[in-house]
Write a structure and sequence with these properties.
about 400 residues, alpha/beta, Hypothetical protein af1432, six-stranded mixed sheet, two-stranded antiparallel ribbon, globular
Length: about 400
């Protein structure tokens, strides 16, 4: 039995007024919230911990929370409890006297993923919480999007945001957390924000993506729609000449990528930076630029010939994956993304036992860039989390 997860489940409150300090033992990083100030205009109630407790109480009071399943309560409560968890690290006092915390949503998502992974929370629950934390402010501003200077993409409309989010997280749960976040503060402009959140909820309902991912005619149309940030219609098939069929692996070191290849696709060519380094006689400490060029050159040759292949690399951050995926999509490849995961103790045990120059301490450093891929990144995505909590493999395919 997973005692960490079972305890977290048992502590999910069903009525407001909970002693939230009970969670300090489980999540020691919560303690810092009480000494982290916020800008008085948006948070006249005071420090982050005061706000967090108000948000949790408001969440529990929502009819949607009271009627929710145990899993949905778990997701919404821990998303709310940790939605501002990285404000201590991101808070700055600006020259004009204001207090800002730019980037706290994204960092909070990464920090929470590490915590919940180590507590062996089931993959689907953990990633729902993580993605809600990373996007918890989006419903506030969905109707106030402005074009980015120099961007080649159109302004992301509220419709596009609803479609995109529906493929990454349970959108109705995100909206409930956003409502609680706005209700749980003293802010003169909060009623307008609450109205906008409710309008965004109605929009998602009209678009049939409040409780399910937005429907597309096919995977090619879906990928073109998301890659162009809504530059094509999501309702009509988009024709595109197809190229190679490519399997892109993603996962922390020692998460099982090589084993997956051996079991599932030994018949395909495999591109690997580690193999390229070995071929060139490079060690972990050497400059790996030549190995990167070798892999990219071979990928381009396979793509030009429209041959299927596997790209085996960690691809643990969206930035790392985008470099690979952008190249593949430039050649109209059809991509299946396979994400593999194992518990921390298993990863470090495997890593220590294998012939590698990558120490476990280096894996610890990599965790702070760790972003699990979402279904908007590829035509098909397969999650293979090998947790101690037994779960079925999850496949997401349009």
């Amino acid at each position: 039995m997973n005692n960490n997860y079972e305890r977290l489940k048992s502590l999910v409150p069903i009525q407001p007024g909970t002693n939230y300090e009970l969670f300090f033992e489980i999540f020691p990083d919560l303690v810092l919230l009480a000494t982290t100030p916020q800008d008085a205009y948006y948070h006249a109630e005071g420090d982050v911990w005061t706000h967090t407790k108000m948000v949790c109480d408001e969440l529990i009071n929502l009819p949607a929370y009271q009627k929710a399943s145990d899993d949905d309560k778990f997701i919404m409560f821990y998303s709310s409890l940790r939605h501002d968890i990285s404000k201590p690290a991101c808070t700055k006092h600006e020259d004009d006297g204001k207090i800002s915390s730019k980037g706290h949503s994204k960092r909070g998502a990464v920090d929470t993923r590490i915590y919940l992974w180590r507590k062996e929370v089931p993959f689907h629950l953990r990633e729902a919480i993580v993605n809600i934390i990373g996007s918890h402010q989006v419903p506030f501003f969905a109707f106030d999007q402005k074009p980015k200077v120099g961007s080649q993409y159109p302004v992301r409309t509220p419709e596009y945001l609803a479609h995109e989010l529906s493929w990454q997280l349970p959108l109705h749960l995100l909206i409930n957390v956003a409502k609680a976040d706005m209700l749980g503060r003293h802010f003169v402009g909060k009623q307008k924000c609450i109205d906008d959140i409710e309008l965004f909820e109605e929009l998602a309902r009209e678009e049939n993506c409040l409780y399910n991912p937005k429907s597309f005619p096919d995977a090619v149309t879906r990928m073109k729609y998301f890659s162009s940030k809504g530059g094509i219609s999501p309702d009509y098939p988009f024709y595109e000449e197809t190229g190679s069929e490519v399997i892109v692996l993603s996962g922390l070191p020692a998460s099982g990528k090589n084993t997956w290849v051996e079991k599932n696709a030994l018949h395909l060519p495999v591109l690997s930076f580690d193999d390229a380094k070995a071929e060139l006689g490079l060690t972990q400490k050497d400059n790996t630029g030549s190995a990167v060029h070798l892999v990219i050159d071979r990928a381009k040759e396979l793509l030009r010939n429209k041959q299927p292949f596997i790209w085996n690399a960690t691809h643990i951050s969206s930035q790392m994956r985008n470099k690979t995926l952008d190249l593949l999509y430039n050649y109209n490849a059809t991509v299946k993304l396979v994400y593999l995961e194992a518990p921390e103790i298993e990863i470090k045990k495997r890593n220590s036992a294998r012939d590698t120059t990558l120490p476990n301490a280096k894996i610890d450093e990599m965790l702070f860039r760790w972003e699990v891929p979402t279904p908007i990144e590829s035509h098909e995505i397969i999650y293979e989390p090998m947790h101690l909590v037994k779960e079925k493999k999850t496949k997401n395919k349009i």
